[in-house]
């Protein structure tokens, strides 16, 4: 990946998501230009540890923020531009944030369809229940 700034409006959501998940998988920091729900713009360097879908179907990026040294949640639609860096993660995700059955940084999908399938399987996997007869 190059270090040039990518404008999300100039590419598909699948492309943006693929780049961000690949950065997470490879442990690479990402600088984003983000517009929050109040319309305030900020530039942050983050270390992504999870990407999931919200109850309303939106995509959520969970990351450690290097500016604040804390966990932060970003909506994918709020990310207006991003740059994936060669620099590695330096922050540690608090243990209570990582679900025991999910290991971060193990997503791998060669195509957007595979990535969507992985996300749906993880987020909507029903527990296996054996019904009594």
Describe this structure in words.
The chain has 133 residues and is an alpha+beta fold. It contains two helices and six strands, in the order βαβββββα. A six-stranded antiparallel beta sheet has the order 1-6-2-3-4-5. The radius of gyration is 16 Å and the shape is globular. 18% of the residues are buried. About 5% of the residues have low confidence.
User: Which strands sit side by side, in order, in the main sheet?
Assistant: 1-6-2-3-4-5
Structural class: alpha+beta
How large is the count of helical segments? 2
Number of strands: 6
What overall form do the CA principal axes indicate? globular
Distance between the termini: 55 Å
Rg computed from alpha carbons, rounded to a whole number of angstroms: 16 Å
Strand fraction equals 25-35%
Assembly type of the shown chains? single chain
- Major β-sheet annotation: 6 strands, antiparallel
Uncertain residue ranges: 100-105
Helix content, binned percent: 10-25%
Order of helices and strands: EHEEEEEH
Q: What's the pLDDT, averaged over the residues? A: 80
